[in-house]
Amino acid sequence: MITITNIKRVGSEKTESVTIEGGLIKGWNLPEEGDIIDGQGGTVAPALIELHAHLREPGQTEKEDLASGLAAAAAGGYGTVVSMPNTSPVVDDPAIVRSLIEKASGLGFARLRPAAALTKGQKGEELAELTYLKEAGAAMFTDDGRTNENARTLRLGLETAGSLGMVISVHAEDASLRADGVMNEGPVSEALGLPGNPAAAEAARVARDIEIVAGLHAQGVPARLHIQHLSTARALDLVRAAKAQGLPVTCEVCPHHLTLTDEALRSFDAIYKVAPPLRTQADADHLLKGLKDGSVDCLATDHAPHTRAEKERDLLDAPSGIAYIELAFPLMYTRFAETLGLERILELMTAAPARVMGWAQPTLDAGAKADLVILDLSTERPVNPAEFRSKAKFTPWAGETLKGWPVLTVVDGKVAYQRA
């Protein structure tokens, strides 16, 4: 049993306590029992939910592993993490799904909900055994890390996943248009003499996938498509139009596409190389507007750790990805609290991803699962990558002063992270 004292609920200045027993919230403001933890005057919220993280296990543990990745997630306030399947081997076997869940459950950090590959080996040709993968505990199906070039295979996948009540998430880029682009195609790429990845690569693929969903929807097929890491204004407008038609299409946006632009690549530092690439300020502003008006469904980090040696290569050879699951909430809160408001930011990182997945809505009511985070919304602290739980101890935001840092994360009624 745990009692957390000296905390406040969102929108209230009243100091309260919450008692947790048997993995559930026993009640509020009860007589103190069990281990007493001081919440340091922080604000309590449901633990965050991450729908898009690369934890690199199995086979790439020099970059990250379940222990480091899930510890980092808990330090970032996350209670649940959906891991991507582009590992070595690919997560396309029910036995791998079961082993990941079993290993993660004994670590005591954030909860793992592994995504499984949509196609065998993520080759985009033959569907994986989706029914068995679901039975093993797969949370969603995706070939993230690769793009789905075969439209017929994606259509068959959407049909099958729909019959299973599962979501398919996609990395929406046309590979032939993207080609060898390493950054956004535009004036900055031209000035730097670097191959560009045009916004049309994303928009064209989003348009194609929406058309597939529209055709299935007209036939009564319950397909659900989730578009990952949307980065362009044009693609968001396509999603907005699809939603207006009542199509079951959702999308996520990542904080790095909101807070960084292609101007950062003038440094020639591969720490800013991501896929899809950092776009223009106009794109970032449009995505922020989508977060405000509901066109964007949720926030996700696309936490993608690499070794420092890999990210120190030149822009043509370095892998894409930024790892920052530990500072996603402080970054969003510091940059956008005035624009979006605390409640909207929390919704985008808790209730909204749960809706995308069709999961129960997180709540702090008595009797609910005890997944919660205590946030210090007032104390400013600089970003110190050396303190990261992730193996990727470097970040574009190093040294930036942020507030909104987690003080305590509780998962299934147990302390998964406590700030020293």
UniProtKB/TrEMBL annotation:
The record, for InterPro entries, names: DHOase, DHOase/Allantoinase_Hydrolase, DHOase_cat, Dihydroorotase_CS, Metal-dep_hydrolase_composite, Metal_Hydrolase
Positions binding Zn(2+) 2 in this chain are D144, H171, H229
Residue sites binding substrate per the record: H54, L55, R56, N86, H306
Q: What is its EC number?
A: 3.5.2.3
Q: Does the keyword Zinc apply?
A: yes
Cofactor(s) demanded: Zn(2+)
Q: Which reaction equations make up its catalytic activity?
A: (S)-dihydroorotate + H2O = N-carbamoyl-L-aspartate + H(+)
State the active site: D302
UniProt keyword annotations, A-Z = Hydrolase, Metal-binding, Pyrimidine biosynthesis, Zinc
UniProt domain Dihydroorotase catalytic: residue ranges: 44-213
Q: In which pathway does it act?
A: Pyrimidine metabolism; UMP biosynthesis via de novo pathway; (S)-dihydroorotate from bicarbonate: step 3/3
Q: State how the cofactor is bound.
A: Binds 2 Zn(2+) ions per subunit.
Q: Which PANTHER family does the protein's record reference?
A: ALLANTOINASE
Identify its protein family.
Belongs to the metallo-dependent hydrolases superfamily. DHOase family. Class I DHOase subfamily.
Its recorded name reads Dihydroorotase
Q: Which gene encodes it?
A: pyrC
